[in-house]
Write a structure and sequence with these properties.
Layout lengths: L11 E11 L8 E9 L1 E6 L2 E6 L11 E6 L7 E11 L5 E3 L5 E5 L2
Antiparallel strand pairs: 1-6, 2-5, 2-7, 2-8, 3-4, 3-6
Length: about 110
């Protein structure tokens, strides 16, 4: 919303998609997916399978909750993988928040 234009003062749903190129040695391994905070709610999918959700029914102050989800190894393949995040903004500002270092995928330790 802060970018203005057609997004100014938008409340509602937006779906973001990102292709991830997974190295061969990560294939089949559980991953940690970090998305920072999302204002307000989210449903997060990895290769079409839901791997995370925060909504008003599950998390107080969801707009500030750090999203860190586990991606099961059975979903992780070498090469092209697709991350999709449905963001629902209910009030005021919305979308992804946090520094660039907040956004990453890595093998689970």
């Amino acid at each position: 919303e802060e970018r203005g234009g057609d997004w100014k003062d938008l409340d509602g749903e937006v779906v973001y998609r990102k292709e991830l190129n997974v190295p061969p040695d990560w294939a089949g391994r559980d991953l940690t997916l970090s998305l920072g905070a999302i204002d307000d709610f989210d449903d997060t999918f990895f290769n079409g399978t839901k791997v995370g959700h925060i909504g008003k029914e599950t998390t107080p102050m969801s707009y500030a909750a750090w999203r860190r989800y586990e991606v099961p190894g059975k979903l992780v393949k070498p090469g092209r993988n697709v991350l999709a995040v449905r963001v629902f903004d209910n009030y005021l500002g919305g979308g992804f928040a946090g520094p660039p270092s907040a956004f990453y995928a890595a093998p689970k330790e």
